[in-house]
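Notes from hallway chat w/ T.B., transcribed later so I don't forget. T.B. wanted the structure written out for a chain they're using in a teaching module, and asked if we could keep both sequence and structure tokens in one place. Agreed to drop them here.
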Amino acid sequence: MKLELDCVTCNVNQVIKMAKQFELGQSAGEKMMKEVLGYLSVADYSQCNPAITSKVWEIIVKHVGDSDPYKEIKRFYNDEMMKMADVVKEKMNQSENPFVTGLKIAITGNLIDFAAKHSFNMDMVKDRIMNVDIIHLAIDDSDRLYDNMKRAKSLLYLGDNCGEIVMDKFFIEYLRKEFPELDIYFAVRGEFVLNDITREDADEVGMEEVAKVVDNGDNSPGTVIDRTSDEFRELYYDADVVIAKGQGNYESLSETDRKNVFHLFMAKCDIVAKSAGTEVMSIVCVENNGVERK
């Protein structure tokens, strides 16, 4: 997806949010805003929003003076979600279709996003997970995903946000049992950006217990293929199936030139919802055909 003007607003709002959260004051906040606006005035708008946001974030953390300002918040959500392990696993085990239930739980974790417009808290996240049975996939290509998984020898699972990574782990744990011959790789961001996951988060939740953790070598809050490492790009194109979690991965990969990519995310804004052909705040499992849905 190419950047749209509404995406620029989101980037500007992130500057305002961080200036308030870290109490930068009027003068420091103005300097940060002016630098971001200067960049946005010359940025290449043919890029996807995650590519633009990565540079905006570099400017923000320079002024904030912390390369990972959400570190403690990320740890809080990871810890809180880990406490749900027994409940989530029981819900999946008791389900008539544990694949779809686990998939929906993993997508529901995508609600945790500090860059999006919607508001949320831990109670809201827990409530949605506990009531996932009555939440429906607005776009449901889960049968296609399952069929692809049965034939696959390798899966690349692209992670997204803190907290959400815990639900990803539980889903992957199920996938390992369902498809015992499958080699599973779990990808994280190469550098800190927003509340997106890095190796630090993967280590914290024990992701290596269920998958081989790899980083993509980039700081975009998505997967901008031409900015990732050679090793990651090779893995991306060689994997039999790719599961791409989150809106940022959809924005950056929805037009890439490969099949068997399945996007699992919550549509958190009008632009993405329209592109995917769904409603705002709905959850989807949509197969990527290399073009946007109209």
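Follow-up for T.B.: The first helix runs from residue 5 to 21. Might be a good example for the class.
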